[in-house]
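TL;DR need structure tokens for one chain.
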Amino acid sequence: MVYAYNVQWRRRPVKSLAVARAVAGSPAWVRQPETMASMTAPDGIDRIGPTHRPPGMGVMRQRWGRLLFLHWVVSPDAVRPLLPAGLDLDLYDGQAWVGLVPFVVTGARPVFLPPVPGVSTFDEVNVRTYVHARGADPGVWFFSLDASSRVAVAAARALFKLGYRYADIRAEVDGERVRFASRRIAPGPLPAAWPEVKWM
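>> reply
TL;DR here they are.
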């Protein structure tokens, strides 16, 4: 099965909380007026607490650049069967959201090592939806995780059991514009696996 994406966007500094939404195939930037207090209402799910840094030391370091969030409204009935048992969709206005998120990773490495030239920088794209576990622990469920580095894919699968796949990803910057294209080439070694989703 071949997955291919071709996206183009303009780079602009983020000045306020904004969400890229694509409704009926047409993206539109929408300002979100919610305050921090309203992020937990009305369903009672704490969406702020999980964003705080946990105690202890991290295992990896990396930076993300040229980041774009494209989101489409999708019927919950279409997405729910794709989730594993124990996870529920985190709905917004009664709708599920599916996102396509391309970006470049720089400086990826274990915390005790410096970045490695030719290995620590690569392009990545993921397809995601938003979930919670029975009213708690909000998070992201990845339908796909593709990266342009065979080393990063192998490490993520072997060390963290993440379902990364190797892809031919191109991100060309021309002034304010970024042209992005991705084509999955290798499913990668087991044991990582997740539900397959076909995008037309």
